[in-house]
Amino acid sequence: MLVMMKRIYLFLALAGVLTQPVAAQERQTLPAREQFAQTITPADMSRHLHVLADDSMEGRETGQPGQYKAARYLEEVIRGLGLPPVGPGGTWSQPMSYISERWNDVSLTINGEVQRHLWNYFAYPSHNADLENFSTQEVVFLGYGIATDAYNDYDGQALQGKTILILGGEPMGKDGLSRITGTATPSEWSSDVTLKLQAAKSWGGFGDFIGHRFSEELEQCQKDRIR
Q1: Which of 134-138, 172-176, 219-223 is modeled with the greatest confidence?
Q2: Confidence band of 32 (pLDDT split at 50, 70, 90)
Q3: Percent of the chain at pLDDT above 70?
Q4: Which of 43, 105, 195, 205 is deepest in the core (most CB within 10 A)?
Q5: What span, in angstroms and rounded, lies between the C-alpha atoms of 189 and 167?
Q6: How confident is the model at residue 157 (pLDDT cuts 50, 70, 90)?
Q7: 214 with 222: CB under 8 angstroms?
Q8: What pLDDT is stored for residue 4 in this prediction?
Q9: Cα–Cα dist 210/203, whole Å
Q10: SS3 letters across the chain
Q11: Which residues make Cβ contacts (< 8 Å) with residue 186, sequence separation at least 6?
């Protein structure tokens, strides 16, 4: 009986020794992405999340103290993983240029009624960096504000020093084709707002308001001026 028990213990011990290398071999045969994925645990994720979402990080807004504090924390985590520094000067970060725009200083009042920014309208502070205050008594509606050989809203308009209101997008025909490109694909005038701003400036406009979806783009610019 004693001999049998020793044999059983010996078998179990050998089985334990044999299974460990097999498990290690299985891990080694896994693709690299799966091996690294197994190192990510819910406990670690929760710990990092609670640190970065803590009130002490102040929302981690770009360029603010909380953002730098969060960056330092992440650098320490990366350093702890043993990853080599690849940033300038042997660091784990990469410097970048950043210009802050003062969204809280943007305001618009129409006929004495204060409008809500990012709700009733939105501004482009980067395009108005040199314009501290602006007021006008007259706004001229100018269709889509497009100036091309194929289609020009500025023809015959005297706009020197005036403020204009233009629609987003571009005129589309009944056939669904753009009157700018002649195809179903809209032109850059629909996606690049700077084209309309540059056109307004070159034609003498002083200030620009771009309407988006108001009254369905003014009933598609009065059916594109009755075609």
Answers
A1: 172-176
A2: confident
A3: 71
A4: 205
A5: 11
A6: confident
A7: no
A8: 39
A9: 16
A10: CHHHHHHHHHHHHHHHHHHHHHHHHHHHHCCHHHHHHCCCCHHHHHHHHHHHCCHHHHHHCCCCHHHHHHHHHHHHHHHHCCCCCCECCCECCCCCCCCCCCHHHCCEEECCEEECECCCECCCHHHCCCCCCCCCCCEEECCCCCECCCCECCCCCCCCCCEEEEECCCCECCCCCECCCCCCCCCHHHCCHHHHHHHHHHCCCCEEEEECCCHHHHHHHHHHHHC
A11: 169, 170, 172, 178, 180
Q: With a cut of 80, say whether residue 201 has pLDDT above it.
A: yes
Q: What is the pLDDT of residues 96-129, one digit of tens each?
A: 877 666 666 777 888 888 888 777 777 766 666 5
Give backbone dihedrals phi and psi of 56, rounded to 5 degrees, phi first.
Answer: -65, -20
Tokens 């025909």 locate to 173
111 torsion bin: left (phi>0), alpha (psi -120 to 50), beta (else):
left
Quick one: what percent of the chain has pLDDT higher than 90? Answer: 18
User: Taking a C-beta distance cutoff of 8 angstroms, is the pair 92, 85 a contact?
Assistant: yes
Distance between CA atoms of residues 104 and 110, nearest Å: 18
Beta carbons of 129 and 173 less than 8 angstroms apart: no
**Integer Cα distance of 199 and 147 in angstroms:** 7
